[in-house]
Write a structure and sequence with these properties.
This protein has 739 residues and is an alpha+beta fold. The chain is 33% helix and 23% strand. It has an eleven-stranded mixed sheet, sandwiched between helices. It is globular.
Amino acid sequence: RAAGNRGRTGDSEGAIARARMTSVEAVTSALEKLGIKPSAMVEHDAAMTVEAGLQAIEGKCPGVFVKNLVVRDKKAGLFLLSVRHDAKVDMKALPQLLGVSGGNFRMADSALMTEKLGVAQGSVTPLAVMNDTEGAVRLVLDKTLVADGATVALHPCTNTRTCSISGAELLAFVNSHGHEPLLADFAAAAAGNGNGGGGGGGGAAKPKEGGKPKEGGKAKAAGGGGPTKGAGKKENASEKGIEYTKAGNLPKWYEQVIVKSEMIEFYDISGCYILRPWSFSIWEAIKDFLDAKIKTVGVTNCYFPMFVSEAKLQAEKDHIEDFAPEVAWVTKSGDGDLNEPIAIRPTSETIMYPAFRSWIHSHRDLPIKLNQWCNVVRWEFKHPTPFLRTREFLWQEGHTAHATKEEADVEVLQILEFYAAVYEELLAVPVIKGRKTEKEKFAGGDYTTTVEAFIPAAGRAIQGATSHGLGQNFGKMFRIEFEGADGKKAIPWQNSWGLTTRTLGVMVMVHGDDKGLVLPPRVAPLQAVIVPITMKDVDEGAQLKTCGEIAAALREAGVRVHVDDRSNYNPGWKYSYWELKGVPLRLELGPKDMAKQQIRVVRRDTNDKEDVPLSILPQKAALLLVQMQHEMLARARQTRDSYVAQALTWEDFMAKIGAGNLVLTPYCNEKEFEELVKKRSKEEALAAAGEEAEDDRAAISLAVKTLCIPYEAPPLPDGTPCFISGKPAVCWTLWGRSY
């Protein structure tokens, strides 16, 4: 059993499940009283977004999927808007559309939804008016939902099910519960055709499609709304290749790239994935590189158990508070319950530090510098994304203890440099090094340093790796003491640091293109593939022998190479296959090449082609791989830098965030204003998009957050005001939307 809080977790889950069942039964019973039997009732995973709902019922549930927004205005009151899934709702147009005075409509909060409609956020439905016996909510229906012959697909007060009924049946249901709906023409309002409200008649126009997003194409991905279904699909694309463009539909593109390139395979437990040899080989390259680096500063590897007792896990309250909702618990052994539930490690501070207490007695026992390569489990409730957000992932975690703060602080930055090297030297991904704000630092630590990467296609940052100065906090909690050289008792200064398989996802999203992966040569499992081009009247045996000799010479030069001599595929198919897998160099050998003692070399990143004499091929290939590695980083850095902007005011800040940028601002560095930025940025983005209130479990958020206080920043003139508070700024801070 996986759960966030131990003890009564099973009971609470059962209570929630029973409440959901009661809700569904109540709706079904109410429908039956009116002689209404849904034409379909589909059970599925919780669908917290319209996109998730559409995917859950694809091919299973007929009808137009209904999107619901609960909005309020101080003067006009509370409204439930039920519209087509693809309809646009302009908040500014609502007063005219609904025929009410006032003009400051905002999304209602989840507590108000539950109070008035008896449903949780994400489960809102026009059927929920059955719970509004006081008539506190005015129902507004998109006219298209109840047009003649219309069928609608909607939640029966729970987002784990979707049912289909006719538009006429929907009208009968809401009317029977004392809610005569206002029928509105949202399509006409979105098209700017004036008042689309009213009671009936005239069938509404089909919602306009293909309109330009308010913040531009790049910001659409950045904003979290995501592309519509089918967006970005290539015309006449082969199912064997990548069917979506990276710019047109980043989520679909990413999923297809990592699956079709044979990096991952989906598993039957949500949030867990099979790392196939192609991806695991890249992780091994990262592991070997970093392991060598940390050993140069005296770190040694070890392994601690993956299980932790509740008592140890709860020992550091501030630390575990952030992890508590994600902790997975083992509660059974065979058919029996364990005497005490055991947690699966979300991180290892509370596992390792009791051992530190046993090992550290004197200053001569310090420093202790340990690292382990292992897996951890964090039972994320957000939508999982392979490599980027998973319930189980691989990582390394370093834990060290030092006699002085100065020594510990030096190590924090040493490790941060190693992490930057992983991204820049191995993966050709530029990163920004900096220090997290107090709000974003590691729970229980003194401070956190970070390397932040950027995904241009999404307009979002992503935390690459972190190195934490823990201070003496954990030493005090676990009573770790040592006798100093002066004979006095002291508490050691501790650090922890970690890097995960998230690195692979970042690499894919930064470098990949519409053909598939583009792998940096230093981590590519294969750096070159030789494709023989066979023709009639060609001695295939001699050709394959030449290919073998070329491969041997390349291996001698340190190039990882493979000869694709499969006879059941033609050369064109092989080209596409290895392009999809991102192999840096393709070497084509045809009959004319053999006659001229040359081979055609094609670069994966630029598609540049060059005929190279076989006599110099090993040297040329090695040079091209080095050149490719360097140029991939240079291009990625140039692109990243073009997305870094400065802003001195809130208006300029939001405009640049909306364009998908990272934004550097003068900042007073006070927690309350960091919270204000997150709140205001989300509210303004939701209002601009006319979307329903954001779900906490969404994989990515519309809210803007601090990424870091960069170590490399321009001078800050005295008296520069903070962009949000107006107080004197104390530092430049980097902000952005983030994964």
